User: Which sequence fits this backbone?
């Protein structure tokens, strides 16, 4: 950008060539303190069709990093001007040379300290309102110069529905036009004599008039002051202020450090055509330290809701002024902010430190930064999209873009961080966020070459998801079910009725299937099968446990998929306890085909184990529907929460060739597949219905406490666990062999199922359930049509043949079947 001034009027007229054909001519009409114009602002092009240019403040600490005392000196200068114009006090504190305070940091500090020692007294109740997001700190700094009947509040773009007494208004030209104003004290507005609106610059004054109308409509105030660093209103805009005064019967006065007129030529820059330098600087490994402060600063309860309709229950910090603040409260807060600044000074590791506020959260970080020592610069993230250009004199040379940590649908920006310039950055958060939420910002900062990030949160994160209630009959040392007991809320549905509903379009997870009560003959078959296969199951569990620990290490949490995965997760946990002395946390959670994984359960696990990875575990694979659902769920979770989950599912048996981590690919009878709840902790299959499962509930299931006398859950895992020591050498040896041969899943089972689908003309592939485990489920809780087997002599099929006989279901041998068997569900309305 070229900035030119005319020779005759170099102090009064300026011409800015911004980008492309966009030009702005500035004529200065008043500069009472003779502050150098170049010390107040530069110019840049906004990515905004409504207003294509931006006065980039060199005072605010928003888009341009500044010395910590400069924003406060800006507030002090406005306070002095207010005292002169509004109060008629030309002997107010702070009589230093205001012409140089923004160019000489030592003057900034002395000017501010002079004000702090000699407050301007306000006898009449006066409320200062800072405009979000840019002027929240400026308004606070101005307010901080007063004592007596001074109050402060700032507008916000936060949506806090559980705090009442608010009004809203719009900022017409803004990229984020909606403003809200909340007041913890319902009398905050009503009891004021004068309302002072504080913004960094006024071009038309429309935003100020919109706020004045909103306040007057509700509270009928008569006296308003609009204070700004810059005032560029045209004669027409001045007339509009006068019109509003007459219309509402009010008085509006203005206070500014610089006034003038502007003339805009050219069009907003829609698509940037100028050269933008790409720094080739590559950062070293970024170190991230995270601190949650312990302080005496008061909190304000209130849950926010972001644009994705996700709630955040963490309280706010009262010291920001978002909900109202008195002069005395502010004075007391300043002592604590000084203490925090000195505390953080001890944690500095570099000579050149950037202190970074986030969005509206500016004043508190800026106040802290003043006491963090020499070599500190400060600025804030912003929502404002600005074109960056590496042109001499242009006000925005570098730009970083990333997703907002509290609302990933909103982009945030950091401007003017040259590559390799800072030794470290302190990022200040009002409310603690998870590491995953902050990764987009951290990744953006990596590109600047800053080797260390210290993330400082003032309010610890609150977690709305309650700990799980006791559930299931397993020992809690083996597994914790992250499920909500909905047994008393939902009756079981008869098998035929449920089948008709599912095929009629109702989701299977919205009904509770009727549990099969096994006959004595069937229970005997289960025990015989357990005796025959316990060692085989133990070996497979040992193999997959070895693969997990060799590939993922010990810093993991087991998350078994209820309910078939639950006993397998217990066996893996016990094997690793014996073999490696690892006592891994193990939770059992819900995943539902077509609905996804229980995100609340994942969030709960991450809250309890923030540094651990999650390993998902299931019993077996069929055609891979749950495997695909898990992959999709992990992708969605990363998008929503910024957290990457490993979707590699670990299973005992993988006859479908759907996963890389498995104990065997033989389709044999896992004894737990013979029974339902009575061998799965007395827990039903999982349920999800909006009328039963609230926003912060886990998915549901029924706990069959009444079946305690028939429960075989613990004896099942105890029997198999008895073989874990004996099979450990073979399990480790087999795992070593398999590690050399791990390949991507081939989905061979699915290909065969698709051939069966075509042979029988079945329209819905979900009516085909391959494998011993899935076929068992068909016979126990669906309406089976026929059973396909590889051979009726297969020893793994004894219970299948028994159940088929009980339900009069035809059994048909199917040559070339890669599974031991396959269950076909009867289509509603006939044989297909």
Assistant:
């Amino acid at each position: 950008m070229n900035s030119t001034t005319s020779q005759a009027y170099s102090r009064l007229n300026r011409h800015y060539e911004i980008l492309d054909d966009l030009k702005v001519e500035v004529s200065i009409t008043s500069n009472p303190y003779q502050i150098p114009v170049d010390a107040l602002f530069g110019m840049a092009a906004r990515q905004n069709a409504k207003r294509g240019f931006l006065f980039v403040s060199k005072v605010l600490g928003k888009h341009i990093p500044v010395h910590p005392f400069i924003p406060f000196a800006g507030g002090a200068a406005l306070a002095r001007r207010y005292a002169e114009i509004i109060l008629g006090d030309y002997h107010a504190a702070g009589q230093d040379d205001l012409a140089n305070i923004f160019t000489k940091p030592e003057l900034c500090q002395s000017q501010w300290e002079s004000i702090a020692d000699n407050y301007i007294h306000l006898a009449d109740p006066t409320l200062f309102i800072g405009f979000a997001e840019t002027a929240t700190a400026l308004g606070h700094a101005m307010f901080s110069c007063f004592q007596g009947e001074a109050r402060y509040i700032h507008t916000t773009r936060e949506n806090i529905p559980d705090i009442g007494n608010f009004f809203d208004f719009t900022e017409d030209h803004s990229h984020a036009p909606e403003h809200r104003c909340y007041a913890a004290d319902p009398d905050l507005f009503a009891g004021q004599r004068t309302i002072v609106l504080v913004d960094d610059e006024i071009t038309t004054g429309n935003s100020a008039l919109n706020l004045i109308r909103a306040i007057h409509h509700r509270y009928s105030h008569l006296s308003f002051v609009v204070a700004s660093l810059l005032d560029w209103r045209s004669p027409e805009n001045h007339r509009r202020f006068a019109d509003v005064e007459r219309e509402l019967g009010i008085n509006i006065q203005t206070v500014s450090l610089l006034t003038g007129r502007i003339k805009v030529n050219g069009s907003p820059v829609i698509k940037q055509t100028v050269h933008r330098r790409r720094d080739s600087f590559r950062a070293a490994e970024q170190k991230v330290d995270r601190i949650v402060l312990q302080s005496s600063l008061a909190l304000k309860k209130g849950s926010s809701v972001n644009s994705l309709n996700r709630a955040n229950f963490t309280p706010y910090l009262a010291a920001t002024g978002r909900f109202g603040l008195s002069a005395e409260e502010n004075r007391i807060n300043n002592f604590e902010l000084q203490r925090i600044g000195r505390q953080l000074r001890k944690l500095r590791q570099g000579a050149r430190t950037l202190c970074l506020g986030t969005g509206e959260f500016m004043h508190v970080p800026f106040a802290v930064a003043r006491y963090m020592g020499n070599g500190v610069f400060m600025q804030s993230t912003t929502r404002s999209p600005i074109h960056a250009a590496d042109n001499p004199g242009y006000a925005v040379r570098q730009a970083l873009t990333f997703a907002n940590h509290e609302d990933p649908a909103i982009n945030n920006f950091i401007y003017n961080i040259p590559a390799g310039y800072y030794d470290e950055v302190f990022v200040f958060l009002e409310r603690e966020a998870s590491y995953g939420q902050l990764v987009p910002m951290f990744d953006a900062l990596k590109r600047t070459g800053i080797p260390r990030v210290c993330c400082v949160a003032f309010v610890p994160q609150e977690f709305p998801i309650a700990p799980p209630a006791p559930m299931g009959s397993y020992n809690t040392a083996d597994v914790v079910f992250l499920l909500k007991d909905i047994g008393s809320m939902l009756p079981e549905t008869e098998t035929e009725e449920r089948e008709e509903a599912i095929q009629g379009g109702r989701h299977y997870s919205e009904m509770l299937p009727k549990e099969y009560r096994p006959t004595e003959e069937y229970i005997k078959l289960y025990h015989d099968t357990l005796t025959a296969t316990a060692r085989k199951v133990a070996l497979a569990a040992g193999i997959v446990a070895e693969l997990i620990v060799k590939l993922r290490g010990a810093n993991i949490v087991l998350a078994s998929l209820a309910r078939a995965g639950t006993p397998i997760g217990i066996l893996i946990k016990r094997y690793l306890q014996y073999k490696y002395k690892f006592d891994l946390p193990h939770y059992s959670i819900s995943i539902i085909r077509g609905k996804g994984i229980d995100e609340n359960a994942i969030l709960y696990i991450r809250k309890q184990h923030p540094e651990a990875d999650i390993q998902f575990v299931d019993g077996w694979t069929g055609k891979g529907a749950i495997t695909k659902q898990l992959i999709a769920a992990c992708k969605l979770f990363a998008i929503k929460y910024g957290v990457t989950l490993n979707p590699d599912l670990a299973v005992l048996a993988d006859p479908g060739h759907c996963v890389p981590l498995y104990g065997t690919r033989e389709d044999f009878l896992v004894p737990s597949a013979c029974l339902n709840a009575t061998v799965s902790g007395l827990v039903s299959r999982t349920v999800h219905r909006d009328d039963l499962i609230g926003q912060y509930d886990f998915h549901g299931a029924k706990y069959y406490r009444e079946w305690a006398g028939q429960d075989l859950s613990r004896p099942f895992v105890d029997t198999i666990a008895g073989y874990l020591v004996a099979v450990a050498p073979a399990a480790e040896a087999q795992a070593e062999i398999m590690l050399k041969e791990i390949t991507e899943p081939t989905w061979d089972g699915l290909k065969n199922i698709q051939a069966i689908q075509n042979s029988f003309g079945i329209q819905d592939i979900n009516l085909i359930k391959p494998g011993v485990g899935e076929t068992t489920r068909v016979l126990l809780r669906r309406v089976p049509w026929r059973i396909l087997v590889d051979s009726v002599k297969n020893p793994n099929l004894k219970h299948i043949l028994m159940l088929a006989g009980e339900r009069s279901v035809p059994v048909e041998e199917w040559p070339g079947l890669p599974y031991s068997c396959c269950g076909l569900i009867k289509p509603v309305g006939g044989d297909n």
In short: Confidence is low (pLDDT under 50) at residues 3-10. The first strand starts at residue 2 and ends at 5. The CA atoms of residues 350 and 423 lie 5 Å apart. The two ends are 74 Å apart (CA to CA).
